[in-house]
Amino acid sequence: MSTTEPNLSISNPHPEDTDVIQKVALVVACFGVLILLAAWANVALDAAIFMPIAIISMIGGTTVYGARSYLKQPEGIKNNGVWHFSLTSRGAFAWAVGILLTGFYILLYWFPGYVGFVQSGENQGLVALFDPLSMAIKGRPASQWFMYGTLYTIAILALGMKFIFKYRHNRYQLIRTISVMIAQLVFAYTIPEILAALNYNDVTTTAGEYAGYYDADIKNVWPLDYDFFYSYHLDAMQEEAYQPVGMIYLIAGMALFLVGTPVLTYLIGKRWYCSWVCGCGGLAETAGDPFRHLSSKKLGAWKLERWLIHSVMIFVFVMTAVTLYGYFTGTSSVFGLDIYSKFQKPYGFFIGAIFSGIIGVGFYPMLGNRVWCRFGCPMAGYMGIIQRFKSKFRITTNGGQCISCGNCSTYCEQGIDVRAYAQKGQNIVRASCVGCGVCSAVCPRGVLKLENGPEEKRYDLPPIIIGNESVKISD
To answer: Taking the model in full, what pTM does it have?
Structure first.
């Protein structure tokens, strides 16, 4: 095989040892992490100096390591031994990482003091390390959420570069990865923080968090941004001091849910959001890429997926309806039930924190990288219904070329048994598919193709039929 052609064959499951450049890059990246740990342990560090060093080290070291790991190999996706490493095969290392991530999220949500956030006074530990950056952007000390948003963005940028090197042979993967990196850096991180600097709102929620129309990731939309219709949010967007931006943001958010989301999903499927824009999807596709093969392909998992995601959708619809009823009637209860304690707080605790945060990310090493997107995200569920029944998007298959290698099913992060469709030559039209295109990227025979076409032909017979009449081209 020519070295200029993508090598899609199965390679040695035991990758070559790292070279000197990779080792140095790994040390540099680990040095950045060491700075974070030292700050967390309250080691005296000059945050103005060590914070940028940590960021540059983590992004730079990871980028060089990824480049050296993949650019010295032929293009193409190969069996790189994912089932031979403890981290990616649910081994002891995977459980350790999962426990650490889960513990970090628990502290972040309910015990922010343990990561250094001080409500009244000077921050300490890990949060204090990011005070200079927060002061530079919005003139206020960092919160635990600013620290988390910064680390989240660093992870997507650094590991996004690694993803680009790995899938460099596939134009679709390059474009969508760059898209999620830009969406996270610009629309989920930079712009909201700049808006916070320009119009800081001192109104606080019942949880003691600062509110304001800029408070949410501006590329999020209800129902993913479930507190969009909370009273403090609606009030903030209508305050005179925030006009006209506040009202524009309110109208745009509602229009995106009511008009933009259905139209875009009809035209190109839910991939426009889940794989190109969403921050949860961005982290899953970059930091979570090594774990995509861990998603269960069992029918039982598919049934559980449908029950859970639609239950969450019902929950958020009921909670939002009750919230709006209370807002417009001026009451704090409905049918004798307190709106905050019986509807908003349970949703925020069980879905907004435990499901989307702790389980959604902390369980990457055990359940795969799209646990939240597959089983819980109400936005994905909403778009999935449209994609399943009223969309032009599908993945077409050429069953006559399938060799049943199973790469497509193995690397489907949504747990779809893609090979079963490919073997029958059937179009893949599933509500859960996020259109990441990795199934097509890892196929050695070009069997799969992501398409937008006439809606009525999504369920037609495949282009190649194998049966009693041998092989023929369908009409």
So the answer is: 0.89
